[in-house]
C-alpha cells in the first residue's frame, strides 16, 4: 500500500491532522490506529470521575467549535463524543485503519519514502510523509514496585479501568495522588467500605469552579459563533496570565500558593492533615491539581491518607517502610503513563541507518518540537518540549498541526523528495530551549515526570502559549534541506539549496 501521508494514532492529534490536511485539499492519507475506536487517551481513561482540568472552550480546536459543552470542565465521555463528532462531521472515517499497531518506521533515502510495519502482520505501507500522532499519554503499565506480581487481590490501572469490578464493601488502596487520583478517590469513597490513599508527595491543589452550561448560553453559541470565539479568547488570555506564576518562580507564584493554601485551610480542619497535604516545592514545579472534591473525600470516615513510603507489594496488600502491612481486596494504581522522555515508543530508522531511540537515549529533542534532523518528512505532534504548564494542550497541538500540514502541503505541491531539518538549526533551537528552561519552576529542584532521571527536561516549553504558537506560524524553509528527485529542478528547491 502507498499513501502520501500516514498518520499514526486516531486521538485528538491524529484526527485534527487529518481534518487540516483535508482542509488543504490533501485527501491521500491514512490513519493507523491500534485500537478499534478513535479517541486516544479519552477512549482509554474511563475511570470514575474522569474529566479535563482545562475549560472546555479552550480544550477543543478553534476550527471545530462545540457550542454543546455541558459544563465548564468536560467529562471524559463528552470529550470522546466530541472527537467522534469531528470524525463524522469531517468525513474522514473511511481513512482510518483500525487494528493497526505500528511496530516500526524506516526511511529510504533513495526513494524518499517511509516504510511502516505493523505488529498484526498487515501489509507494509509506504508513505511520503508520516505524522506521529500517538501522543505522550498513550501507553500505561503497572509501576515497577517490588512484589507487584505477588499480589493476590485485584489490580486496576487508572488508564485501563475495570468497569466489571464491584467496589461495594471492598477494602481499596489508591497508589498515587496526581491528576487521575484526585478524581478517582472522591468516587471510590462513595462505594468502597474503606479507601487508603498512598501519597508519595502532595501537590498544589486549586479549586475547580465547574458550572453547568445553561441552554440559553448554548443557544447563543449556536446562533452567534463569535460569542464562543470570544469566550475561548478570554479563557486563553486568562491562562496566559497564570504562566507568570507557574512557569517561572515569581511573586505571582506566591499568589498561586496562597490561593492553594486558602483552599486547603477552608476544606481541611485538622492541622496535622493539612501539614501532610502541603507541598515543599514551588507551585508549578509539578502539575497543578484542579479539584474541589479531593480534600473532602480524604476526610470521609472510610478514607485514610498514608504518607509512609511503600516498601513492597505483598500477597495480600501493601507493606510500608515502617513495617506495617495494609491488606486490600483491590489496589488502584493511579501512577500515570509511560511517557517517552528518552528513547522512542517504536523503532524509527532515518537517514544512513540512524536510530532515533539511540539519539534520544539521554533525552528527547527536536526542532520546534515537530521535526528531527536526519529523519526527513517525519513530523511529531506533542513532540519534545511542547508541554504547556499553564494552558491547554489543544492550543499547542493545533499550532503543531497547522505547521505540519503547511510543511506537507509544500512538500507535495512542489513534488520535493524530502524536507530535512538542518542540524545547525535544530541545535540552535534546543540550546535556546534548555537555556530558558533553567529559570523555570520545572527545573527548580523537585522530581516530576517532566524530567529524566538525570534532570534533563525534554517535556515542557519554557514560555507563553503565544510564544509557542508564534514560532509555528510559518515553515522557515531556510532551516530545512530540500531534497529533490534525481533530474528534477524546481525553482523553489534550487533557491533554497
TrEMBL record:
<keyword id="KW-0503">Monooxygenase</keyword>
<comment type="similarity">
    <text>Belongs to the FAD-binding monooxygenase family.</text>
</comment>
<keyword id="KW-0274">FAD</keyword>
<dbReference type="GO" id="GO:0004499">
    <property type="term" value="F:N,N-dimethylaniline monooxygenase activity"/>
</dbReference>
<dbReference type="InterPro" id="IPR036188">
    <property type="entry name" value="FAD/NAD-bd_sf"/>
</dbReference>
<protein>
    <submittedName>
        <fullName>4-hydroxyacetophenone monooxygenase</fullName>
    </submittedName>
</protein>
<dbReference type="Pfam" id="PF00743">
    <property type="entry name" value="FMO-like"/>
</dbReference>
<dbReference type="InterPro" id="IPR020946">
    <property type="entry name" value="Flavin_mOase-like"/>
</dbReference>
<keyword id="KW-0560">Oxidoreductase</keyword>
<dbReference type="GO" id="GO:0050660">
    <property type="term" value="F:flavin adenine dinucleotide binding"/>
</dbReference>
<dbReference type="InterPro" id="IPR051209">
    <property type="entry name" value="FAD-bind_Monooxygenase_sf"/>
</dbReference>
<dbReference type="GO" id="GO:0050661">
    <property type="term" value="F:NADP binding"/>
</dbReference>
<keyword id="KW-0285">Flavoprotein</keyword>
Amino acid at each position: 500500500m502507498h499513501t502520501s501521508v500516514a498518520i499514526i494514532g486516531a486521538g485528538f492529534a491524529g484526527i485534527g491532522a487529518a481534518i487540516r490536511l483535508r482542509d488543504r485539499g490533501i485527501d491521500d492519507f491514512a490513519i493507523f490506529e491500534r485500537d478499534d475506536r478513535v479517541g486516544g487517551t479519552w477512549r482509554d481513561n474511563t475511570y470514575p470521575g474522569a474529566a479535563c482540568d482545562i475549560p472546555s472552550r479552550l480544550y477543543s480546536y478553534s476550527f471545530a467549535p462545540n457550542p454543546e459543552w455541558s459544563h465548564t470542565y468536560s467529562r471524559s465521555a463528552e470529550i470522546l463524543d466530541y472527537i467522534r463528532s469531528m470524525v463524522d462531521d469531517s468525513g474522514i472515517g473511511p481513512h482510518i485503519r483500525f487494528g493497526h499497531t505500528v511496530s516500526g518506521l524506516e526511511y529510504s533515502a533513495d526513494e524518499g519514502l517511509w516504510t511502516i510495519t505493523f505488529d498484526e502482520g498487515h501489509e507494509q505501507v509506504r508513505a511520503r510523509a508520516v505524522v506521529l500522532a500517538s501522543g505522550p499519554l498513550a501507553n500505561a503499565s503497572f509501576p515497577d514496585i517490588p512484589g507487584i506480581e505477588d499480589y493476590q487481590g485485584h489490580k486496576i490501572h487508572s488508564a485501563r479501568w475495570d468497569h466489571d469490578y464491584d467496589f461495594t464493601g471492598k477494602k481499596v488502596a489508591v497508589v498515587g495522588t496526581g491528576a487521575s487520583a484526585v478524581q478517582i478517590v472522591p468516587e471510590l469513597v462513595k462505594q468502597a467500605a474503606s479507601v487508603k490513599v498512598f501519597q508519595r508527595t502532595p501537590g498544589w491543589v486549586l479549586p475547580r469552579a465547574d458550572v453547568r452550561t445553561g441552554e440559553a448560553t448554548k443557544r447563543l453559541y449556536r446562533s452567534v459563533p463569535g460569542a464562543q470565539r470570544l469566550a475561548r479568547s478570554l479563557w486563553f488570555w486568562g491562562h496566559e496570565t497564570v504562566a507568570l506564576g507557574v512557569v517561572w518562580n515569581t511573586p505571582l507564584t506566591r499568589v498561586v500558593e496562597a490561593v492553594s493554601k486558602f483552599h486547603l485551610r477552608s476544606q481541611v480542619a485538622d492541622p496535622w492533615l493539612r501539614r501532610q497535604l502541603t507541598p515543599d516545592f514551588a507551585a508549578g514545579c509539578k502539575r497543578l491539581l484542579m479539584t474541589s472534591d479531593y480534600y473532602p473525600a480524604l476526610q470521609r470516615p472510610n478514607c485514610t491518607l498514608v504518607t509512609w513510603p511503600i516498601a513492597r507489594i505483598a500477597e495480600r496488600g501493601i507493606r510500608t517502610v515502617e513495617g506495617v502491612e495494609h491488606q486490600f481486596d483491590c489496589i488502584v494504581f493511579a501512577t500515570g503513563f509511560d511517557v517517552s522522555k528518552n528513547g522512542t515508543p517504536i523503532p524509527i530508522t532515518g537517514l544512513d541507518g540512524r536510530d532515533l531511540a539511540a539519539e534520544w537515549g539521554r533525552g528527547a529533542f527536536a526542532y520546534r518540537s515537530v521535526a528531527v534532523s536526519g529523519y526527513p518528512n517525519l513530523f511529531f505532534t506533542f513532540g519534545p518540549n511542547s508541554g504547556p504548564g499553564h494552558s491547554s494542550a489543544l492550543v499547542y497541538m493545533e499550532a503543531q498541526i497547522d505547521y505540519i500540514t503547511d510543511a506537507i502541503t509544500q512538500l507535495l505541491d512542489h513534488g520535493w523528495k524530502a524536507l530535512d531539518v538542518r542540524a545547525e538549526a535544530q541545535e540552535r533551537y534546543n540550546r535556546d530551549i534548555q537555556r530558558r528552561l533553567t529559570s523555570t519552576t520545572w527545573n527548580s529542584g523537585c522530581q516530576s515526570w517532566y524530567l529524566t532521571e538525570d534532570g534533563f527536561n525534554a517535556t515542557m516549553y519554557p514560555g507563553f502559549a503565544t510564544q509557542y504558537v508564534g514560532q509555528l506560524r510559518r515553515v522557515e524553509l531556510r532551516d530545512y534541506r530540500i531534497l529533490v528527485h534525481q533530474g528534477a529542478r524546481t525553482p523553489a528547491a534550487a533557491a533554497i539549496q
